[in-house]
Design a protein that fits this description.
Oligomer: single chain
Number of strands: 9
Order of helices and strands: HHEHEHEHEEEEHEE
CATH topology of the largest domain: Heat Shock Protein 90
CATH superfamily of the largest domain: Histidine kinase-like ATPase, C-terminal domain
Low-confidence stretches: none
Radius of gyration: 19 Å
Strand content: 15-25%
Number of domains: 2
Shape: globular
Number of helices: 6
Structural class: alpha+beta
Strand order of the largest sheet: 2-4-5-9-8
Length: 230
């Protein structure tokens, strides 16, 4: 049943974006000379946004299926959490700037070395999902803030946003493989929720925890804890 639902997501959620990409590409090709540069820019931006959305969907589907089939191996190591945070912020920054969202990286700015014992690749995937989601659900003028601190034998990392927030009734669904559950960002970007399921799976594999506190209209705070020792 899960496999059939995955195929349904691929067929439906990728078909519509590609129809839009094809349609706007045809307009640019056939009517480039007739259209103003402003309209060409608008069409090109749409193609870029939808292509990025489709890529992220495929990426989450791949991570989800790999985690469900046990194809991902757990390879822990000691590393500074600032490294994957910095890399992820650089990846997401252009999208945040385009939306007018203020992206604040307090982790990289912190001179303290925040080392953890975890699978670096898995944690990078978790950060990519949490930070890109925060940008997706935060309107222009809002803020996404990433912070971290050491507490006892754990590292506590938070991704906080001033976005649309999450209904209390939806919070229990966030980390479960409910393939009927979907969300929409401030630019109508559709999300299947699979990214957060992958986050939960990867954090569990790293002996950590993930939780969320949210208020509709105020924003959300996702918190992950990771061990700093073997």
């Amino acid at each position: 049943r899960t496999k059939n639902k995955l195929f349904s997501i691929i067929a439906h959620d990728l078909k519509n974006p590609f129809q839009g990409i094809i349609g706007f590409s045809e307009l640019i090709i056939k009517e480039a000379e007739k259209q103003s540069s402003e309209k060409i820019k608008k069409y090109s931006q749409y193609i870029y946004d939808v292509s990025l959305q489709s890529y992220k969907l495929l990426d989450n589907l791949l991570d989800f299926t790999r985690s469900q089939t046990g194809l991902i191996k757990y390879n822990p190591e000691y590393f500074n959490i600032a490294e994957p945070v910095k890399e992820t912020v650089l990846l997401v920054k252009s999208n945040a700037d385009a939306k007018g969202v203020n992206l604040i990286d307090e982790v990289t700015e912190n001179s303290e070395e925040l080392k953890v014992f975890a699978d670096k690749s898995m944690i990078a995937t978790v950060l990519r999902n949490l930070i890109s989601n925060a940008v997706k659900f935060t309107p222009s003028g809002g803020t996404v803030r990433i912070s971290a601190k050491l507490e006892d034998d754990n590292l506590i990392l938070k991704v906080a946003d001033t976005g649309v927030g999450i209904k209390e009734s939806d919070i229990p669904k966030l980390f479960k493989a409910d393939l009927n559950f979907s969300t929409f960002g401030t630019r109508n970007e559709k999300g299947t929720g699979l990214g957060l399921v992958v986050c939960k799976d990867f954090i569990d594999k790293n002996n950590g925890t993930i939780s969320v506190k949210s208020k509709v209209g105020k924003g959300s705070v996702f918190t992950i804890t990771l061990p700093v020792k073997k």
